[in-house]
Design goal:
The structure is a single chain. The protein has 170 residues and is mainly beta. The chain has one domain. It contains no helices and eight strands. The strands form two sheets. Strands 1-2-3-4 form a four-stranded antiparallel sheet, with no helix packed on it.
């Protein structure tokens, strides 16, 4: 591009997905994901030297998606239920961030209160990069107070989560 010469590009369009979340840490293959339901996600992969996009639909175990999310602050305002500018809610269960490191692909998203969770929580799912099976049921970050993890569209560390995450702060 510095020589002002042309370049080639490809694109991908779908109409049956709400959002895509690209991951950080990729090499010669780009990965991204989108939800199928509250118990399944679609992991896409597109190799740099290919014109073909592949995907795997993977079961992840059920998670809560009851809008609006309920987490009252000290002023009694429900900051998790902020409505978006286009309708619906900003906390709606979409995948917020993803990464690949050490042969593992991971994704994180906010889930709502419900079941054994008194407050919204963060779900984490990890998959083997080679053939995309779920490594184990989704991990959860749960707190005894309201906490939502903002998306930075990727992890700053090249390491991935290795242990089950279930935190209760008292």
């Amino acid at each position: 591009m510095t020589s002002c010469s042309g370049f080639n590009y490809n694109w991908f369009t779908v109409t049956d997905r709400f959002n895509f979340t690209m991951i950080q840490g990729t090499g010669a293959t780009m990965y991204w994901a989108s939800r199928n339901s509250t118990s399944s996600i679609r992991i896409y992969n597109w190799a740099e030297n290919s014109n073909t996009i592949y995907w795997n639909d993977v079961s992840i175990g059920s998670w809560n998606r009851t809008t609006p999310y309920q987490c009252a602050g000290p002023d009694s305002l429900n900051w998790c239920a902020r409505q978006s500018s286009t309708s619906g809610y900003t906390n709606d269960g979409r995948i917020e961030t993803g990464w690949v490191a050490g042969g593992v692909i991971g994704f994180m998203w906010n889930a709502s209160q419900g079941g054994s969770f008194n407050y919204p929580y963060v779900d984490v799912a990890r998959f083997n990069e080679s053939d995309k099976p779920l490594i184990k049921p989704a991990d959860h970050l749960e707190f005894k107070l309201c906490l939502a993890i903002p998306s930075d569209r990727g992890r700053r560390s090249r390491r991935h989560c290795r242990h089950r995450l279930r935190m209760r702060l008292r």
